[in-house]
Structure formats: C-alpha cells, structure tokens
Amino acid sequence: MDHRTGGLGHLLRHTRTPVGALFRRIILINGLVFTFGTLVLALSPATVSSRVRLTEIPVLLIGLAVMLGANAILLRRSLSPLDRLIASMHRFDPLRRNDRIDDIDNGDLGHVIDSFNAMTERLESERTASSAAALAAQEGERRRIARELHDEIGQSLTVALLSMKRAVDKAPAEIAAELGGAQEAVRLCLDEVRGIARRLRPDVLDDLGLHSALAALCHEFSTTAGILVSREVDRSLDRLNPDVELVCYRVAQECLTNTVRHSGASRVTVGLQVKADVLELCIIDNGCGGVSREGAGIRGMRERALLIDATLTMNSPPGIGTDVRLRVGYDTARSV
Known about the structure:
Elements: H1 2-14, H2 18-43, H3 57-79, H4 81-91, H5 110-170, H6 173-200, H7 203-208, H8 210-225, E1 228-233, H9 242-263, E2 267-275, E3 278-285, H10 296-307, E4 311-315, E5 323-329, H11 330-334
Parallel strand pairs: 1-2
Antiparallel strand pairs: 2-3, 3-5, 4-5
Helix pairs in contact: 2-3, 5-6, 5-10, 8-9, 9-10
C-alpha cells in the first residue's frame, strides 16, 4: 500500500513539472479521442456482431482511421515547437550570437522554450565574461612582453651597437670590415626587436587612435610583405571606445597576417567607414580565397567581436579572394 501510494505521489508531483504538463496534455488528447470514438459507436446505428462480418470491417477501419488521424493531428500540433527547439540546438554556435525561440502559442512547451532561451542567454554571458578575462590577460601579457623587449633587450642592443661603433672607429683597417658586419647584424636585430614590440602592443593606438594605428599597420605590411595595402579610412572619425579600437586593430592585424601567409594576394584593401550608424571595418584581398575551415586565428577574431557586441562575417569564394567585415553600432563604438 505504501509502495503504491509513493508511486502515485511521485506521479502527481511529476505532473506539476513542464514535462508533466506535456504528459497531461497527451493524456487529455488521447482521452478525448477515445471518448469521442466511444460516443460515436454508442450513438450511431452501426453495430458489430460477435463474429465480425466482412461488411462490418470497413466501418471498423474507418472508425480506427478517424481516431488515429485525429490523435495524430492534435499531438503533432502540440509537439511541433519541439522541431524548432531541436533546429535551434543544431544551429547553436558558441562563437556567434544565437537567435532566441519565440514562445508565443507554444502552450505547455513554453516552459521548455523559456528554459532553453535562459540557458542560451546564460551560456553567452558566461562565454563573453570568460573570453573577456582571457583576452584581457593576453593583452596584459602582450603589453608586459613589449615593454620588456623595448626597455631591456632594446636598450641592451642599443648599448652594444654604440660600443661596436666605437670599436669600429678605433679598430685597424683589417678587422674594421668584420666588425662593421657584426654591427649591421646587431642593428638588424634591434630593428626586429622593435618591430616585435610594436606588433605586440602598438603605442600609436593608445597615443593617436585607430586611424593612425591602421596607417602604421598597413605601411608595415606593405614594406615587409611586398604586397600593395591600400587604406579607405574615414578621416573624420573621432576617437572610439578603447576596447573597440583594440578589437578593430587586432582583427585587421590578423586578417593581414593571414593574407600574407595563406592567400597569395597581391593587393589588399583596409577600410573603416560609418554606414547607416554602423561602424564597419572591412579587409578585402584578391587572393585565392576558398577558406572553408576556421582556424585559431578566425576563432580568435570571433571571440574579440563578441566582446564589443559586434558581428564578424567572412566571404571567401574560391579563386576570387576573401572579404572580412566587422560591424558594430556606431553609438556603441563611441561610448566610453
């Protein structure tokens, strides 16, 4: 008795949950269908003999078909929101903003839809917070390494370069040429260290803003990579939110790096414009295109875009080139 009572109590408690509500609806639909079928059989002139006659079989089959059809239609309508829920689960991408499911007229499944939307919102919030912390730590480490390269290694190489210059001036002619070669090697090493420090954390971005930082970036790639990098930047743009400027700079830097390494392009255009209250950064090259798999670099760009509530799109048809665009609301980009 206690076992049966416990089982019944468990069932009653279960029916108070969202799944229990769906369970009650299914039971109600089936009960109504069978009740309707029973009333039709009771009130209609149709009868069934103790031994079913051949002429009565069509009546039974029609009645069964009507009951099954009505049951299928009602259940299909009640469970149809599950199709949208499953489709949304398949489309879910942690590196993109995901659409929420509209729970209007979803009946008892509205609780399930609301729970899924809340879970998606929570996952996106936690992902954004964790990505922000990771990228902030990464930028801090970049800044520290750049400062050490500039202050420690850069100054040491500068001192070594000056010492070698004095040695060259005092050295006999037979070893002056050899010392001159070593001096040039140290000078090249110093330039490389300064370039690495500048790429890790460009001072011009903090001092002069995104416009000047993009100009320096394009000039650097034009000089070192041997490709034509043109700029189409709106010079009337004011200083933007520091986070927005940093994300735009890193996206442009990653795109140019990928272009040099993988695309085989001879020309690339970097644009920064405001269109219909939307700040758009675009990087377009004339390389081989055909990017079908997103590597760590592209995933990193998507993570950065999420930090400023921006949208990153990439179009890379084979043989035509790659078009990467970062879009963020201009009001959001200007807010500090």
